[in-house]
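Hey,
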Amino acid sequence: LSVQTTGTLVTGKSIASILINNTTSYSITIYGDESDLENIESIPVTIDVSDMGNESTRTYNVNIRRPNGVRDMSADSVEITATFGDEEQKTVVLTSNFAQRNTGSGLTANPIAGQEISVQVKGVASVIEDITAEDIQAYIDLDGLTAGDYEVEVKIDNNNPLVSYVVSN
């Protein structure tokens, strides 16, 4: 299971940890045709963190939505406990070696040599202290672009609800 969040925490707060049924790594067994299951890497469960953070923890009882093609699951619901703490931030500098997505047929993208991007990493100190540039999966999306010069936004893949990123030039 992968926990996703909706809503915005109280200013100055972040999620320090998330436990599913009192463990950091919780999995369930799913049943169905192999062809339907082979592309399922995780099943998302969502918690609403709107205006949370002033209290130290919050427990959610969450029903698991059954993905298409899944006939049965070993669990239909879980208990998610989110712990909150004070948000801190640090800056990580990325070089221009970003993954490229949706590059047109026969085209290549050449970033400006030596260009750096600053990324503000936000979360509780114990979560963000060890994050380096190698941990940040930055990319540029070239969908719909033809030959020419373009300034494109650098985006970040983030599947960690304990961290948020803000890209700046």
